Amino acid sequence: MPLKNGPQSCIPLLWNGLAMAVVLIVDDDWRLSQMLREFLQREGFCVLLAGNGQEMWEQLGLHPVDLVVLDWMLPGGRDGISLARELRSRTATPVLMLSARGEADDRIAGLESGVDDYLAKPFNARELVARLRVLLRRQGHEEGGRHLEFGPFRLDLAERRLYRSGKEVEMPQAEMELLMAFAQRPRRILSREVLLQALGAEDDGRFDRSIDVRVTRLRKVIEENPKQPQYLLTERGVGYRFLPATLS
């Protein structure tokens, strides 16, 4: 049974007012993947699914991902070991490997491939959650962060209010929506396509520059010099990246 079951999106999503960590599960066991997705969503994660290496790269190209849960045995000629090595050469995203092969030599081989953690099947779902949260903390993921600070600004994520030096900044709803989309994925490159999804807009197939216009307007609000931005940077040919100082 295919894992692709319609569009998948994790932006923007909040859980109890907090930005969700995005987990990509790469496993051809459809039943297990669905079970894990339901459990992880209840624990406050946003979950994407892929059934093989090709689908994994497709999802990584569409969505900023905080964690990858990667099965060792996959169809399509690429196993988890080879995919883990390629992932590590291209990204610092933490990878947890799942495998029915639980012998010491297998665990060592998995860890030597570049994964950050290894969990043998069968496993307890709560242990998986605990391990994922440890990996997030190691990466400095701001789990539970309600306030984001950059320069003289402080953004209240729960209340959706922006303050400059303690005074609330009045700004149009469109710019606030865009700022919230960036705030939920700080320091990640977001493509125009991902930002359109975040804003609930649809790409009608035309060369839509509305995101660029909104970014220009947002820079006028948060940048000292919009032509030389410090916080909202352009990644040429790819999209944009938001660089706040801290989440607390």
What this model shows, in words?
Helix 1 links the parallel strand 3 and strand 4. It is elongated, with a radius of gyration of 19 Å. The protein has two domains: 125 residues, 3-Layer(aba) Sandwich (Rossmann fold), CATH 3.40.50.2300; 101 residues, Arc Repressor Mutant, subunit A. The N terminus is likely disordered. 35% of the residues lie in helices and 23% in strands. Helix 6 crosses helix 8. The strands form four sheets. The chain has a five-stranded parallel beta sheet with strand order 4-3-5-6-7, with helices on both faces. Strands 11-10-9-8-15 form a five-stranded antiparallel beta sheet, with no helix packed on it. The protein contains eight helices and 15 strands. It is of the alpha/beta class.
Overall pLDDT level: 79
Helix content: 25-40%
Number of helices: 8
Number of domains: 2
Name the overall outline. Answer: elongated
| Number of E strands | 15
| CATH superfamily label of the largest domain | Response regulator
Amino- and carboxy-terminal Cα gap:
42 Å
Write the CATH architecture name of the largest domain.
Answer: 3-Layer(aba) Sandwich
SSE order, one letter for each helix or strand: EEEHEHEHEHEHEEEEHEHHEEE
Broad CATH class of the largest domain: Alpha Beta
Read across the widest sheet, the strand sequence of neighbours is 4-3-5-6-7
Biggest beta-sheet profile: 5 strands, parallel
CATH topology of the largest domain: Rossmann fold
Regions with little confidence, pLDDT below 50 for 5+ residues? 1-7, 12-18
Query: In percent terms, what proportion of residues is strand?
Result: 15-25%
